[in-house]
Amino acid sequence: xxxxxxxxxxxxxxxxxxxxxxxxxxxxxxxxxxxxxxxxxxxxxxxxxxxxxxxxxxxxxxxxxxxxxxxxxxxxxxxxxxxxxxxxxxxxxxxxxxxxxxxxxxxxxxxxxxxxxxxxxxxxxxxxxxxxxxxxxxxxxxxxxxxxxxxxxxxxxxxxxxxxxxxxxxxxxxxxxxxxxxxxxxxxxxxxxxxxxxxxxxxxxxxxxxxxxxxxxxxxxxxxxxxxxxxxxxxxxxxxxxxxxxxxxxxxxxxxx
Length: 257
Ligand code: DAK
What we know:
257 residues; six-stranded mixed beta sheet; 11 helices; 17% strand; globular; binds 4-(N,N-dimethylamino)cinnamoyl-COA
């Protein structure tokens, strides 16, 4: 593992996965996501692990999918890359996953946190789906999970303006479980993980499965719809311009083409 760090027993029966691309604010490239999928599959099978915590660093949980790796892709390139199979596998993890978030959780980073089962945030955390600013839309469940978490009006605001919200606001809207001072966010996540680890692992797995079932059928349809529209944005000149402008550190000029 190069882009993540896995500690199998950070606490008894609690594993920790740390995203480890600090210079790129933990931007999620395919290699990182594949390492994450492999780690989660291993930990899910490991009898000594009951709960998994995923974290970044104090500055960034993850600032999104890697724009530099996506900028030149066509809709068909994105389709053939099939990165969604990695994300789908993450979604199938049976053990509970807690995201411990500090700093930026943006785009794919916010989607990764929402794919986890619970979110503990530091007071400095910032959540957002800024894809619209680079000419695309969320592609890893943001339009579905954010809407379920915060409601239609707030999801529209965040996804159509690309605005960030603070940890406090995210808590108000029910996106995160708890907000704590920065020196406490990991401790708090482990505290919750240890509490869950004391319960029957069978009951925990069945409880998680049942809660997810409450929106999974709708989620499958919603995700399929989002994916088609996400691929479609890669057929636009605005996607090329939006991502190029990010890399060149300038404001994009969108033409609606
Ligand atoms: N991708 C690539 N590099 C990134 C990045 C990203 N998302 N975010 C930051 N970086 C890089 C910056 O380019 C910079 O690199 P250098 O210039 O030093 O080489 C370095 O990280 C530090 O960033 P900044 O200099 O920009 O730091 P600041 O503190 O000034 O600003 C910021 C922090 C987070 C506000 C800013 O970096 C920013 O706006 N970042 C982009 C946020 C964003 O737009 N995120 C959404 C990306 S689109 C999919 C799954 C998921 C997705 C799509 C498909 N499939 C399964 C197919 C998701 C899409 C997205 O997330």
